Amino acid sequence: MNKKIITLALLALALPLTVVAFPGDKGDFEVHHANRLEHLSKRLDLTPEQKTKVEALFKVQDEKLKSIHEETQARLQEILTKEQLTKLDELKKQRHDKWQSKHEGLNNQKAPEQIK
């Protein structure tokens, strides 16, 4: 039973809420959104009005994801024991560290291309 709960909790956290789980990286998250918006703007040749609407849509999406994340965290605290919550925090930190090292490696690989 506990394995099922932990598995469900991990699946819930594996959603695109991972970035929201680490508010210390908020600057990177905002940079990601700005880059995504610019990429879409160029690829789709968005008008300024469309760009503004897409940006607003992304903000609404972020707010909804943050709300879902906060609700999930609150419900997990009601379900899991303190030991399980501690282990879950460790798993999230490991996942974040792995994500961060992967992205740092990608950024280092992209740096020479940007110099050209």
Helix/strand order: HHHH
- By DSSP, the count of extended strands is 0
Radius of gyration over C-alpha positions, nearest whole angstrom: 18 Å
Report the biggest beta sheet as strand number plus sense, adding barrel if it closes.
none
Q: N- to C-terminal separation?
A: 55 Å
Number of domains: 1
Q: Give the low-pLDDT segments.
A: 15-24
Which of globular, elongated, flat, extended, rod-shaped describes the shape?
flat
How many helix segments? 4
Helix content: over 70%
Model description:
The protein has 116 residues and is mainly alpha-helical. The protein has one domain. 84% of the residues lie in helices and 0% in strands. The protein contains four helices and no strands. It has helices at 2-13, 26-44, 48-79, 82-115. Helix 1 packs antiparallel against helix 3 (48-79). The chain is flat, with a radius of gyration of 18 Å. Residues 15-24 have low confidence and may be disordered.
